[in-house]
Amino acid sequence: MNASVLQLAGVSKRFAAPGGAVEALKDVALELAAGEFVAITGPSGSGKSTLLHIAALLEPPTSGEVWLEGENVAQLSERALAARRAEKIGMVFQKFCLLPHRSVLANVLFRFRYASRARGAARASAVAALEMVGLRDRLQHKARLLSGGEMQRVALARAIALPPRLLAADEPTGNLDRAAAEGVMDCLRELNRRGTTILLVTHNEALLRHCSRHLRLVDGRIGS
Ligand code: ADP
Ligand code: MG
Question: From the CB of 53, is ligand 1 less than 6 Å away?
């Protein structure tokens, strides 16, 4: 088996909420080996986005451990955590999280904010990523003026402009028609072929054939 890129052990996540605490994840165990392309499906509210945020080191679990390439991330300082995210992880947010008043190119360049890359190299990588998602002709458009599908593709370009070890993609085809969704899957497969391990949340059963493994999340627990 290939080396482990991500390991979640006994991961639970509880959110405090006015109506009582929500157990979004319950004792989740998950290991991603290098080169895997794993799909997660599950009903709305089953904890998929929460799982991706924890996998992308954006928030800590309430209990359990998260290991990234052999490092227990609980032992990292905030600064080291930010560095690991910048160097190793790409995240495509379900709600895109673009800077609405900035250009498409500026949004993708944001990926390099905490990563040390020469400016020219960063720009070339950003443009190449936008080309890959079919938005080479939109570099100077303001993000807020794009269609939902275009915003989604900018979010993907931002995540892959610096090829990550792990890509966590939260329904990255949710706003796309069938042809555009297949285009995004082609991008993900190419990225995977070049060595990125992928954790993909999707509602689209037709896309599962592109993945090497499929897990189902139900009420915060992983089935199969
Ligand atoms: P999914 O992505 O599968 O639709 P989520 O991971 O977004 O599910 O949410 C799982 C559960 O946790 C839901 O019941 C949701 O309402 C709750 N939840 C998610 N984030 C928060 C939060 N920040 N505060 C309180 N509850 C939350
Ligand atoms: Mg979600």
Answer: no
pLDDT in tens, 188-222: 999 999 999 999 999 988 889 999 999 999 999 99
pLDDT digits 0-9 by tens, 109-164 = 999 987 778 888 999 999 999 999 999 999 999 999 999 889 999 999 999 999 99
Q: Which of 12, 22, 58 to mutate to test the pocket of ligand 1 (most atoms within 8 A of CB)?
A: 22
Instruction: Identify the sign of the CA torsion 36, 41, 47, 49.
Output: positive
Q: Which-ligand-closest: CA of 221? A: 1
Radius of gyration of the chain (CA): 17
- The pair of structure tokens assigned to 165 is 């070890």
Q: Report d(CA 30, CA 160) in Å as an integer.
A: 23
For the record, the structure tokens of 78 come out as 């905030």
Q: For ligand 1, is residue 46 a contact (CB within 6 Å)?
A: yes
Q: Where are the alpha helices (DSSP H) in the chain?
A: 48-55, 78-88, 104-109, 119-132, 148-160, 178-193
pTM metric for this prediction: 0.93
